[in-house]
């Protein structure tokens, strides 16, 4: 009897193992992305103390626009409760609202065009799960007309291979996160030049903090950093000499990245051509 009992427990444990090691749900994946590399809250959560998560309102003042980050909570009046999942995915990757208007900058639509189908849906699943907030956000004003579209409609984007650190790091740094938007040199049109200036630095980033100059993060710029020092500066904003980075790099969000994702980003940065 005793032996049968032990055998039965052993069989149960074998059956249970795959369940215990189950993959994360889309909602869990979405929560992870939003709170780490994608850093949606860096714009969509107001900076006032106690502001509700993703309830919008933050103002971005530039010569070309005064934009207000939208309320992304599932509030029926002021949030995105009325958008279907497909409409939210389109909003993210095509920068189109359900009625066809274009979503303007600084919403990083051109970055999110490379977001995989699974990750876009995971982020939408997470947005559905947060508490609705009735925060009303005034409309943005654009002094130059917004484009009719940000490019041909995105139909499907396959997930990058997650066993290839350089490819996965590229995806994290330029499809989900804005590393390359901030750190790429500007071209003549004032927009990041991802072909000749990828990660080369030099952009002047303006805000309430004044002007910060984005540094070169190709191997020419960060060659003196060890991998551990890079992990530290990306997740805490502290350089090897103890000095602190100026804003607006969202290091508090990057602090939530997994060790695997951070290593992939570092492998990608180390693989870049020197600029
Ligand atoms: C750099 C700042 C920034 C980041 C990062 C950002 N957004 Fe936005 N987003 C904005 C701004 C500003 C608007 C409003 C633009 C406008 O009024 O046309 C906006 C608009 C939107 C809209 C349209 C909502 C509406 O009601 O019209 C959606 C959906 C959205 N963002 C989702 C996201 C998600 C999800 C993330 C993270 C994956 C994200 N955004 C990251 C700045 C940002
Ligand atoms: C919103 C803009 C922004 C984003 C997004 C951003 N950075 Fe930065 N980053 C900066 C600025 C600005 C500085 C330098 C601030 C200063 O001069 O003190 C900086 C500094 C750095 C440094 C230190 C470089 C040095 O020379 O000491 C590294 C490394 C770095 N960023 C990597 C990254 C990576 C990797 C990502 C994406 C995971 C990223 N950054 C996303 C703006 C940004």
Helical coverage, percent range? 25-40%
Hetero groups in this structure are: heme C
State the secondary-structure class: mainly alpha
Total DSSP helices: 12
- Name the poorly predicted regions: 1-18
Quick one: how many beta strands? 5
Report on the biggest sheet.
3 strands, antiparallel
Shape: globular
Question: Rg from C-alpha positions?
Answer: 21 Å
Distance between the termini: 72 Å
Major sheet: arrangement of strands: 1-2-3
Pattern of helices and strands: HHHEEHHHEHHEEHHHH
Mean pLDDT: 92
- Number of individual domains: 2
Beta content comes to: 5-15%
Q: Can you describe what's shown?
A:
This protein is mostly helical and 275 residues long. The chain folds into two domains: 25-159; 160-275, Orthogonal Bundle (Cytochrome Bc1 Complex, Chain D, domain 2), CATH 1.10.760. Helices cover 39% and strands 6% of the residues. It is built from twelve helices and five strands. It has helices at 2-20, 26-35, 41-44, 85-94, 109-112, 117-129, 165-176, 179-183, 219-222, 227-236, 251-254, 259-271; strands spanning 59-61, 65-68, 141-142, 204-207, 210-213. Helix 2 crosses helix 6, helix 4 packs across helix 6 (117-129) and helix 7 (165-176) crosses helix 12 (259-271). The radius of gyration is 21 Å and the shape is globular. The model is unreliable at 1-18 (pLDDT under 50). The structure holds heme C (HEC) (2 copies). One heme C binds next to helix 8, strand 5, helix 9 and helix 10.
